Amino acid sequence: RKKAPEGFVAWSETTFDKLIQSEPEPLNSRFRVTHTMLLAVIARPGNAFEAMRHLLEDNHEPRRAQLRHIRRAIAIYRSLLDG
Question: Per UniProt, what is one Pfam family of this protein (predicted)?
Fold first, then answer.
């Protein structure tokens, strides 16, 4: 695939107006708790427990999903301790 020429603009004022006037697309959360996330939080300075708690509870996920993420984080933490 070729790179666009330097300074090329792929949209016009009409495109911009359509974006302004159209309905916004709904945002879908892709939040996932992973081993990498947990290790990254543990590795940084400060209270890892409070930092994880903030990530898991102070977000726009429904409470049910937050609880699922909390259970997953606990399971990952336990697996790291056992490992």
Answer: DUF3516
pTM of the model: 0.71
Contact 73, 38 (CB under 8 A): yes
- 40 close to 53: Cβ distance less than 8 angstroms: no
Q: What residue ranges do the domains of the chain occupy?
A: 31-82
Query: Of 48, 43, 38, 42, whose CA–CA distance to 74 is shortest?
Result: 38
The DSSP annotation for 31-50 comes to ----HHHHHHHHHSSS-HHH
For residue 44, what pLDDT band results from cuts at 50, 70 and 90? Answer: very high
Contact between 69 and 33 (Cβ < 8 Å):
yes
Measured between its terminal Cα atoms, the distance across the chain in Å is 45
Helix (H, G, I), strand (E, B) or coil at 59: coil
